[in-house]
Task: structure prediction
Amino acid sequence: MAIREIRVVGDPVLRTPCDPITDTKSAAVRTLVEDLLEGVDMEGRAGLAANQIGVSLRAFSWNIDGEIGYVLNPKIDALDFDEYQDGDEGCLSVPNLWFPTKRAWYARVTGIDLDGKPVVVEGEELMARCLQHECDHLEGMLYLDRLDRATRGKAMREVRKLMD
Result:
């Protein structure tokens, strides 16, 4: 497989909510999963959503602390808002820009695998940030949408420079 090009801010596929996967046995979905796993298995990549490679389906892969995996039709079903994390966040679709983004400390996502079997992915800190970030992508959101007003203004000025 070839590594697919990452879509960047300004591409409409990143702002469109993704469709659920209805046929996990299709060759297209199996190829998508292969591409997501290959695409995330690179230094500096924590997660990769299907729409970031131009496919508007609900799927993402992750690469956190040496664990690589994927989930289809993910839904966040638990967030721990008792503790927050407010570290810098970046995105392959917003290259070379990092901004402090408030996220829940813990997150749990449920979905399915290619065999249609249930998948539960959960974690704290970086894994929680990744799960929230990738699920946002599938809803047509970028992490920039989560920034506080002042930081978002600065971020959008930087994004405009990228697009020129």
Observations:
- The beta strands are 47-49, 59-64, 67-85, 88-91, 94-100, 103-112, 118-124.
